[in-house]
Amino acid sequence: MSASIKDNVSEPGRWDESPVLTVENLTMRFGGLVAVDDLSFNVGRGDITALIGPNGAGKTTVFNCVTGFYKPTEGRIIMRHGSAISDAEVRKLTESGEQSMSTAEGAIFLLERMPDFCISRDAKVARTFQNIRLFGGMTVLENLLVAQHNALMAASGFTIGGIFNLPGFRKARQKSIDKAVYWLEHIRLKERADEPAAALPYGDQRRLEIARAMCTDPQLLCLDEPAAGLNPRESSELNELLQFIRSEAGTSVLLIEHDMGVVMEISDHVVVLDYGEKISDGSADYVRNDPSVIAAYLGVEDEEVAEAEAEAAAAAAAAAAAASAAGQTMSGGEPAGEQETKP
């Protein structure tokens, strides 16, 4: 299958034109349980893509496959660094048996073949979890510095440069501090940089965790229920942060979220799962009005879904007919039944 994901539940969109991530025919089985069944979708470059569905739909399983916690039973997970990478180059990598390949435009990674630490380090995929996992005893600033540990270790020559405080290490350390302060400013926590992370309110801890992930310079940021437990003000601040990450940092976002207000306000693209299968895929407006999505959330029967779809089609046809009749009237014709009979 090409980068364009085409099926009968998908609305075509720009996410198909230059995807940063392609999940292709993904299946995940646990013994006899099929948690995810033949799932395909794209995450557009520079988009916020929401993965939604009822509890138990398979959303977190998909995240675990993308980030390397699980190895999928079947399917490919393709990460692209570069907007002009062709399907032929992806096929070449697949046939080579390798995990990654450099191209003229950047690089390609097959995440299902990579260990989790390589997905984070090399493919530049960062993740947060449902439960906050900050280092509570460390300061707010230190939590952002620890995310840059690999860069600091490399700059220190794996300790020797740090021991002797060599110029290369000093430069890298200052760069790490500057990056941490940059993100503290954008999450409005610069004034609390020296406080323990555990002392922050819940909403601030959520934003700090996202800022820590951003300190790794990810191309794809995966957020697992970032709005869980937030009050309306904190949800609004989260929305602002995610929109900044998309527009200013240029990072693509894939999020799992149950707060439909957050999803519909900030998402460019929504993918809906139910019992491990994709039931809808498109813009927020497309998904919001999809009878299958409404049925999945309200728990109605398949027959009712078919009836709702038929009613929607009939209503659309009636609206089109009415618009056509109105157009004829505006063009100078008289409605049928009201024309005068000329002698």
TrEMBL record:
Instruction: Give the region (Disordered) as residue ranges.
Output: 324-343
* UniProt GO molecular function: ATP binding; ATP hydrolysis activity; L-isoleucine transmembrane transporter activity; L-phenylalanine transmembrane transporter activity; L-valine transmembrane transporter activity
ABC transporter domain span: 21-300
So which domain of life are we looking at?
A: Bacteria
Q: Which GO terms describe its biological process?
A: D-alanine transmembrane transport; L-alanine transport; L-isoleucine import across plasma membrane; L-valine import across plasma membrane
Which Gene Ontology cellular component annotation is one that this UniProt entry carries? plasma membrane
Q: What are the UniProt keywords, alphabetically?
A: Amino-acid transport, ATP-binding, Nucleotide-binding, Transport
InterPro entries found in the cross-reference section: AAA+_ATPase (IPR003593), ABC_AA/LPS_Transport (IPR051120), ABC_transporter-like_ATP-bd (IPR003439), BCA_ABC_TP_C (IPR032823), P-loop_NTPase (IPR027417)
Question: Which PANTHER family does this UniProt record tie to the protein?
Answer: CONSERVED COMPONENT OF ABC TRANSPORTER FOR NATURAL AMINO ACIDS-RELATED, HIGH-AFFINITY BRANCHED-CHAIN AMINO ACID TRANSPORT ATP-BINDING PROTEIN LIVG
Family membership noted in the UniProt record: Belongs to the ABC transporter superfamily.
Protein name, entry field: Branched-chain amino acid transport system ATP-binding protein
